[in-house]
Amino acid sequence: MNSAVTLPASCRFGLVLHVLALLAAALLCGGCSRVPSALRPLPSASGPVLTERLTYRVDHLQVRALICRPDLRPGRPLLNLVHGGLDSPVDEAACRRFARLGYVVAASALRGQGGSQGRPEICGGEVDDVRALSSLVRQRSKTDPRRIGYLGVSLGGCVAIKAAALGSGVRAVVTLLSPTDFAEQLDLLRPVRPDAVARWEALLGGPASARPAAYEARRPLKALARLRAPLLTVAAGRDQLIPLKQSCAVRDVRRLSGHHVTEVRQNQAGRPAPRDSRRRLQRCRDEAPLGRLPALQRQDVLLIYEDLGHTSTPLMWRTAEAFLKANL
């Protein structure tokens, strides 16, 4: 006997809207006091970490930051950690965790966030915030100038790509569930979070139809073409906030720029996704994925967790750690 229950179309639509609203809160975080649990990293391992909170100057603004390091030894690799959202605080747990893995970690609160002056610019001036902090930490902590990495979460992925493309000594970039098309983003959110959309449009000077140049300037695609370092792009096949085609666009730009990009499809447990899976709702054009991760050194990887929504998992963070270790 078949026990499956089919919901009426109106109920299914209502459920989708409800899920979108919950996920929108995690991405846009319009007034959050802490990092959304869906995007938190693995729990930190034990061990001492040196932390420093500081304020530095960028474009006549006072911007706050957190620095984490395992010790005072010079010559360690530098990891620039870029948080997501518009009101998310610096993720101290992630900062400490990566410091315990041997990195000096620079985490900017970004302008208009975490007590910093200014206002958010949505992958605009935040790039300068990250680059200025990276330069400051390199000088103060005497990190290895040839081993620099970037890790950006959600909106922070856009900032990380742009900052990395402008720097030297960058050996690895990781983005986790990161958007590349903000006009499309807001169109998806408009039915369920009109308040958040209104805020973003105010920051961008209006809707995309009225300010197309402003929206295009925020996209990271031109920076992706210039980026020389290996890139790990982690996407979710069931992400209702960031359609997979936005990560497919990353793959396409990188390939056109001469980079080899290996596609990998897995479920969220890390097992190869069935080739004929009917659950594969979103696909890249001409996709030919592997089921397992290749050697991570010196190559781009597009990793798609096909049964995952807009949330991170312990396995996702471990893969990011492995990619950074292989290239830094």
TrEMBL record:
Keywords: Aminopeptidase, Hydrolase, Protease
Molecular-function GO terms, alphabetical: aminopeptidase activity; carboxylic ester hydrolase activity
Residues annotated as domain Xaa-Pro dipeptidyl-peptidase-like: 40-210
Annotated signal peptide: none
InterPro entries, sorted: AB_hydrolase_fold, FrsA_esterase, Xaa-Pro-like_dom
Superkingdom field: Bacteria
One Pfam family in the UniProt entry: Peptidase_S15
Protein name from the UniProt record: Dipeptidyl aminopeptidase
UniProt source species: Deinococcus irradiatisoli
